[in-house]
Amino acid sequence: MAYVKFSEGRKFIGRVPFQADLLDYLTGFANDHGIRAGQVMALGAVSEAVVGYYDQHKRTYFNIPYHRHLEILNLTGNISLKDGKSFVHAHVTLSDEDGHAFGGHLMPGTTVFACEFIIHEYLTEQDLNREFDQDTGLGLWKL
User: 6-124 has which CATH code?
Assistant: First the structure.
């Protein structure tokens, strides 16, 4: 079993600006604050969204765009390093005006209406770097 021990670092509570790209903002925040490992959570609403679905056979993400107003029921993810920079990997659950829920991998193109986030920084014994995994075709933690 591969794992890394960590201790708690800084904790941040914030609000994503109106009309910001959600993934770009969270990634920029992590880089601006030197967060090398951590957890991110958020809730709120978006004007439009793009979520990804990873096809395990084709080993590629497919984007699913939603050009309508949606609630963020939950966003959960982690922060690690990719190519020496902070990298946010997040999944999001959204709901429409009828209360139908759906979700996937948070992709660029998700435009914020209102969003509040919490980030917990983790101080690790070694950096959590992402590298290509032959078995899955994904960029996974090198542990």
Answer: 3.30.1330.80
